[in-house]
Amino acid sequence: MARRERVTRMSVEQPLWRALTAYRLLTMLYAIGLFVTAQDRFDRPWVAIGYFVVLVVWTLATLPRVANAASCTKRFLTADLIVALAGILLTPVAVEHSRIVAGGPTLPSIWTAGAVLAYAVKGGWRWAAFASLLVGVANVVQRGAFSRDTLHNVLLVCIASIAIGYVVEVARASERTLARALEIEAATRERERLARDIHDGVLQVLAMVQRRGTALGGEAAELGRMAGEQEVALRTLVAGGLVPASRGSEDASQGALVRAVEEPDDLPGTSTPCDLRSLLAPHAGARVSFAEPGAPVFLPPVAAKELAAAVSAALDNVRRHAGADARSWILVEDEPDAVIVTVRDDGPGIPEGRLAQAEGEGRLGVAQSIRGRLRDIGGTAELISVPGQGTEVELRVPKISRGKAGSGR
């Protein structure tokens, strides 16, 4: 079946770009408003008008440039800072010197901070410090002297921009860490799914070939020996990990890109609940007794499929470890909040510590084919075994699944 890839893009810094866009628009209007209310104090108002025409055109034309980090190039940042510095240095040409000495605003006023903040969001605190330094020098030049007010304004812009730049750098590092963690989780889940499929199919066939070949002898024994070697090698691969983590991160300007492989929808009508009884009934036979409720036992299709596969794995373990003459019983219970399936056999039971030893050897029948499947659909698997008294496996799946089956897939 075709598989599909879920792509999730995360960007903590994207809201900062939207805020910067709004800030540039609002501060442009604020700078124009200051000029309109105090134009009588300008010696050369036409200089201010010419600058504001350029400022309005530049601000509106470059709005797409501050939409994200990819669009905000170094060339744009340089030009944007030049526009801000030009406005500061043109202030003594347009306005009375007494107004400058009295602490009056520059032509771009607080719009200048937007240019510095763009440096901070794009390149971090070092870029912000560089842009703030140039703005501070321009303010000192236009006033003709160093004053307390100038120092206050420059420090305010510098500290704010550096702080924002540092936050952006931390956010990008957090995005990369989160993306890596999600990639590892996705790879681990895919490895477990492949391990279950391999255990339910390939490994069991190889084990059967080994047993039959050994029993037949001759050339068949050699074939059985080779099958046994391949079984050991494949178990080692399954236990060690089959799926390497992929490179899932792109440029931090677009946010962390995370790819997680989803399992295919191989059951028709995934939105229609499935009667679990129809999936378990084929197991009934001379050596397997099946007890079911009189009414349908509905579960989401994926949950029903995984639960039925876990029951199959439990019965396979009975046949392999308890012998062909062992009897099994399947009991289905439909409770108000959960569906419980119990698989019991009259075999010799499992010695204490054997399951942990088997898992360490790469034999993942219980760990993956049973417990792993139930964990993925939000359920639990409990195994009770007493040597000489058989084994009982209780599989519980909540009606409202916490796993992937609950998503309606």
Characterization of this structure:
This is MacS family sensor histidine kinase. InterPro entries: DUF5931, HATPase_C_sf, HATPase_dom, Sensor_HK_TwoCompSys, Sig_transdc_His_kin_sub3_dim/P. Keywords: Kinase, Membrane, Transferase, Transmembrane, Transmembrane helix, Two-component regulatory system. By secondary structure, this protein is an alpha+beta fold. It folds into two domains: 8-173, no CATH class; 267-409, Heat Shock Protein 90, CATH 3.30.565.10. Helices cover 57% and strands 12% of the residues. The protein has twelve helices and nine strands. Strands 4-6-7-9-8 form a five-stranded mixed sheet. Strands 1-2 form a two-stranded antiparallel sheet. It has a two-stranded antiparallel ribbon with strand order 3-5. β6 (328-334) and β7 form a beta hairpin. The longest helix is centred in the middle third of the chain and has 69 residues, at 148-216. The chain is elongated and about 105 Å long.
